[in-house]
Amino acid sequence: MRTSFYSGIAGVALFLPMLASAQTILNLLALANTVLNSLVYLLITGAIVVFFWGLITYLATDGEDKKKGLNRMLMGIAALFVMVSIWGIIQLLQRTFGVTNNRAIVPETIQIR
Fold it and tell me: What is the DSSP letter of 108?
């Protein structure tokens, strides 16, 4: 029990200098950015699928199932509206504060060599 604990601490200590490296942190942030952007596209695609699923249900059925189809369509449209609105607000904030994907913000006191 104790040896696995100490070997775990040694393993973490072995990778600490790698985590402290600025380049590694920037790479991790870039990877997280890529994953989150992909997740946004996946969620928008899911909302579109829910909308069309509701549309097909609405057109193909009668009675109570027609109401379920209408609810699915409305939920799909609401989800799309919320996601695209948040995406637009983020874009507006990025443009307002000058944060873009193609240039790094470097304080004047830090010299890049």
Answer: T
